[in-house]
Amino acid sequence: MMASVRRVPSLVAGSLIALTACTTSVQTDQGSGAYVNEEAGFAIEGPEGWVQQENVAGSTVSFLVPVPPEDGFAENINVIVQDAGPMGLEEYTELSLEELHGLGNGAEVVEEGEAELGGQPAHRAVTRTNMEGRDLRILQLWTIHEGRAYVLTY
Predict the structure, then answer these.
(1) Measuring CA to CA, which residue among 154, 34, 146, 24 is closest to residue 86?
(2) Dihedral of the alpha carbons of 113, 117, 122, 123, in degrees to the nearest 10
(3) Hey, which of 40, 44, 87, 136 has its CA 20 to 30 A from 150?
(4) From CA 16, how far away is CA 118, in angstroms rounded?
(5) What pLDDT is recorded for position 32?
(6) Do 39 and 23 touch, CB atoms closer than 8 A?
(7) With 0-12 CB in 10 A as exposed, 13-18 as middle and 19+ as buried, what is 154?
(8) Which of 8-12, 17-21, 85-89, 128-132 has the lowest mean pLDDT?
(9) What is the pLDDT of residues 128-140, one digit of tens each?
């Protein structure tokens, strides 16, 4: 069953996420940064003024800085929701950390530990890497709720 879970590194900092058991429609509010996706079972409060986009590069929702800085790298927050099947947080965490350690480009997990996300036990990891000549720190946070993995990246 482990092979059926596709992982794409991603996570969020400074945003509020709530996990729900709803299954209907998608609502967005560009002005307030609030995003509700009842079908995927979560809501998140993105940074004020950032642009929301759905279904970008495998993400359920992304929040992007409205005007990229001079260096051309725009900060972003992504949420990915995946079917985790019967996998629990411990097994998902092991697979996620293996993936983060294997990123290449000198990627190194510099911090990791237990966390909480949407009232659920979660795990967090900070990875230092180099992408396109830029030294980056990527914060990831993930949890499992009702058979779904919720992964946030900043």
Answers:
(1) 146
(2) -40
(3) 136
(4) 8
(5) 56
(6) yes
(7) buried
(8) 8-12
(9) 988 778 888 999 9
Angle at 33 between CA 84 and CA 36, to 5 degrees: 40
Please, are residues 95 and 2 in contact by the beta-carbon 8 Å criterion? yes
- Asked if residue 135 lies in contact with residue 27, where contact means CB atoms within 8 angstroms, the answer is no
**CB-based burial, 30-57: b 16+ in 10 Å, e otherwise:** eeebebbbeebbbbbbbbeebebeeeee
CB atoms under 10 Å from CB of 90, counted, come to: 10
Q: With 50 as the cut, is the pLDDT of residue 30 above it? A: no
Would you state the structure tokens that stand for residue 81, as one six-digit string? 């929701």
Q: How long a stretch of residues is the chain?
A: 154
> pLDDT-derived band of residue 120, with 50, 70 and 90 as boundaries?
very high
Q: Phi and psi at residue 8, in whole multiples of 5°?
A: -125, 120
Q: What is the pLDDT of residue 80?
A: 94
